[in-house]
Write a structure and sequence with these properties.
By secondary structure, the chain is an all-beta fold. It contains no helices and 50 strands. The strands form 13 sheets. Strands 3-4-5-6 form a four-stranded antiparallel beta sheet, with no helix packed on it. Strands 7-8-9-10 form a four-stranded antiparallel beta sheet, with no helix packed on it. It has a four-stranded antiparallel beta sheet with strand order 11-12-13-14, with no helix packed on it. GO terms for molecular function: telomerase activity; telomerase RNA binding.
C-alpha cells in the first residue's frame, strides 16, 4: 500500500499491509482513518500516520469496504455473498448480513447510517436496515456486476453504475427506475461468437384466488390470469409495464357472494379495476377504469363490507366505497387518512368493521374510526423501534410485530400497550388465534406465545432463512377455533413451504419445488389447498387430504415461467 503527497507528487510511505491483493479501500469523512480489504481474508483500519489500529479476520476473501458517515461502522463485502458490519472503533458488534447468492461487489451507507446498500456481481441490489440487520428491499439493477453506488439528494435517490455500461437512477422505495444512461460505444472487444439475447422472465410479487382462477401480479410486467385446474396461463395484460404489489378480488353487492371485480395497485401509484369479459375472449380481464390520488407506490390493501382501504408509500391511506368501483360510478375517495410520517406497510379492519388499524415505516400504529367521517381514534406514535411488519385484530385486543423483534399487545379502547414480548431477531409476520400469538422471524424461527401471560409456549427452527409469511389454516380451510389444534403454514426465502403443529412441536411436511425465495402465499378458502409465488418465476399449487398425511398435490405446478 502506497501513500502519496499530491501537492509535491511524491510517495511518502510504502506499507506491506496485506499478504494478497488489496481489493478495496475507503476513508472516513474527517480523513483520519483508512480501511482496506484484501483477498487474504482480512479487513484493516489504518491511522493517518500509516499505523494499523484495528483488524478483523473473515471466513471469505473480501471485495469492498465502506465507512458509515460517522466513521465508527465498517461494512465489508465478501466473495461468498455475505456483508460484514463491524463497529471497529469499539471492536465489537460484528454482524453478518446474508442474502446475496453471488459475490458482493460494492457498498454504500445511507446518509443517516440507518440503511446500507449492497450490490453483487450478478447485478442484484439489496437494501439493509443496519440496526436490525434485516434485508428491507431487493431489486435487479444491472445485467452485469454493480460497480459503484452514490446516494443523491440526501438519500432520496440512488445512482448505480454497472458492468453493462449503464448508469441507473433509482427513487422511491429503491427499485423504481427514474432514469437510465447507456454508453452507445463500449470499449470492449467483440465476443468471438454472437450471444443469443435472452429476456429475463418477470418475478411474481403477489397472488389472489377467485374460484378456479388465480391472478398474479409481476415486477414490471402487469398481471396474468391462470386456470388452477389446467395449470395454464389463460390471459396476460398487454403493455402494462408496471410492478403490481397488491391484488384484491372484491364483491360490490353485500347481499351477493359472487366476486365481480379485481383491483390492482403497485408501483404506478394508481389503482386499476378489472372485470371478466367472456364475450370478448374466454376468461379475459378488461380494465374498466384507472384512478387514484396517492403519489407513492401502493403497498397494502384491505377491505370490509363497505370500503376498500389502500396504503401507500406517500404516508397516506385512502378509503374507497366498494359500490363506487362499478364502471357506472365516478370513483372519488371517500376519505384520505393522514397521520403517518412514513410509508404505510400494513392494514387490518376490526372484527366489527368499525375501525381500521394501520402500521408503517415510521414505527407508529394508528387506529382510525371508520364511519361517514373517518377520524383518528388512537395515535400510537413510536410504538416500535423499527418498521412495523404486521398488525392484526382479535376480539379482545390489537397486536403488532416489528423489525425491532417485539410483539406488542394493545388495548384498543385505552390505546396503551398491555403486553410486550421481545425476541432477539426481527419479526417478519404475525397471526393470532384465541390466547396464542404466532410470529415468524428473519432467522427462520417460528414462535408461539401466550399473549395473556407473555410466556413463550414454544419455538422451533422452521427454516434456514428468513420466513416471509406465516398463517393459520386447517385441512377444511377454516380458521382454527381450538388453539390446541393450531396448524401453521410458513413460507421462506429458502424456497420451501412447511406445515406445522407448533403446540405439538410437530413438523408435518415440507413442500419443496421452488428454487427461489417464496414471496407470496394465499390459502383457498374452504379447501385444503394453497398457492405460492416465488422469485424463481413460478406459481405453484399445493394440497393435502384431510385425515391423511399432508402431501404435495400430484403434478399441480401451475406454471414455471422461466
Amino acid at each position: 500500500m502506497e501513500l502519496w503527497d499530491i501537492e509535491n507528487g511524491c510517495r511518502t510511505a510504502l506499507i506491506a499491509g496485506h499478504t494478497n491483493m488489496i481489493t478495496g479501500s475507503d476513508i472516513t469523512s474527517d480523513r483520519k482513518h483508512l480501511a482496506t480489504v484484501s483477498l487474504d481474508f482480512t479487513l484493516k483500519v489504518w491511522s493517518s500516520k500509516c499505523s494499523e489500529v484495528a483488524s478483523l479476520s473473515s471466513s471469505s476473501p473480501l471485495n469492498c469496504v465502506a465507512f458509515n458517515p460517522e466513521g465508527h461502522l465498517l461494512a465489508a463485502g465478501c466473495w461468498n455473498g455475505n456483508v460484514i458490519v463491524w463497529n471497529w472503533l469499539q471492536n465489537k458488534g460484528q454482524k453478518l448480513l446474508c442474502g446475496h447468492q453471488r459475490s458482493v461487489h460494492c457498498l454504500s451507507f445511507f446518509p443517516s447510517s440507518s440503511m446500507l446498500c449492497s450490490g453483487s456481481v450478478c447485478g442484484e441490489v439489496r437494501v439493509w436496515s443496519v440496526p436490525t440487520s434485516t434485508c428491507v428491499g431487493r431489486f435487479q439493477a444491472h445485467c452485469g456486476a454493480v460497480e459503484a453506488f452514490s446516494f443523491l439528494e440526501g438519500g432520496a435517490k440512488l445512482l448505480s453504475a454497472g458492468a453493462d455500461h449503464t448508469l441507473q437512477l433509482w427513487s422511491g422505495g429503491l427499485g423504481r427506475s427514474v432514469a437510465a444512461l447507456k454508453r452507445e460505444e463500449c470499449e470492449q472487444e467483440p465476443p468471438e461468437k454472437k450471444l443469443k439475447s435472452v429476456k429475463a422472465e418477470p418475478v411474481p410479487l403477489c397472488v389472489s384466488v377467485n374460484g378456479d382462477q388465480a391472478a398474479v401480479g409481476y415486477h414490471g410486467d402487469g398481471i396474468r390470469l391462470f386456470n388452477l385446474d389446467s395449470g395454464k396461463e389463460i390471459w396476460a395484460s398487454q403493455d402494462l409495464h408496471v410492478s403490481v404489489h397488491c391484488l384484491q378480488w372484491v364483491v360490490l353487492d353485500t347481499d351477493s357472494t359472487q366476486v365481480e371485480l379485481l383491483v390492482s395497485g403497485g408501483g404506478e401509484k394508481s389503482l386499476r379495476v378489472w372485470k371478466k369479459q367472456k364475450d370478448i375472449m374466454a376468461d379475459a380481464l378488461t380494465c374498466l377504469k384507472t384512478f387514484g390520488i396517492q403519489t407513492g407506490s401502493v403497498l397494502a390493501m384491505a377491505q370490509n363490507s363497505e370500503y376498500l382501504a389502500t396504503a401507500s408509500d406517500d404516508f397516506t391511506i385512502v378509503l374507497w366505497r366498494l359500490s363506487h368501483l362499478a364502471p357506472e360510478h365516478t370513483t372519488d375517495p371517500h376519505a384520505v387518512l393522514r397521520g403517518h410520517k412514513g410509508g404505510v406497510t400494513c392494514l387490518a379492519f376490526s372484527p366489527d368493521e368499525s375501525q381500521l388499524l394501520s402500521g408503517g415505516k415510521d414505527q407508529s400504529l394508528i387506529v382510525w374510526q371508520v364511519n361517514s367521517s373517518p377520524v383518528v381514534s388512537k395515535s400510537l406514535l413510536r410504538s416500535h423501534r423499527d418498521w412495523i411488519t404486521g398488525c392484526v385484530w382479535t376480539s379482545d385486543c390489537m397486536m403488532s410485530s416489528s423489525n425491532d423483534g417485539r410483539v406488542c399487545i394493545w388495548d384498543a379502547e385505552a390505546g396503551h400497550c398491555i403486553r410486550e414480548i421481545s425476541w432477539r431477531n426481527p419479526l417478519t409476520s404475525i397471526c393470532s388465534q384465541g390466547g396464542k400469538v404466532i410470529a415468524s422471524c428473519s432467522e427462520g424461527e417460528l414462535h408461539v406465545w401466550n399473549w395473556e401471560t407473555s410466556t413463550e409456549v414454544c419455538h422451533m427452527s422452521a427454516h434456514k432463512q428468513r420466513i416471509h409469511h406465516c398463517t393459520l389454516i386447517t385441512s377444511s380451510g377454516k380458521k382454527e377455533e381450538d388453539t390446541e389444534e393450531l396448524t401453521v403454514v410458513t413460507a421462506s426465502d429458502d424456497g420451501s413451504v412447511r406445515i406445522w403443529k407448533p403446540l405439538q412441536m410437530d413438523h408435518f411436511c415440507t413442500f419443496s419445488g421452488h428454487s427461489g425465495a417464496v414471496c407470496g402465499v394465499v390459502h383457498k378458502e374452504g379447501l385444503p389447498e394453497f398457492l405460492t409465488v416465488s422469485e424463481d418465476c413460478s406459481l405453484r399449487r399445493w394440497t393435502w387430504t384431510a385425515g391423511l398425511p399432508l402431501r404435495r398435490s400430484g403434478e399441480a405446478e401451475l406454471a414455471v415461467l422461466r
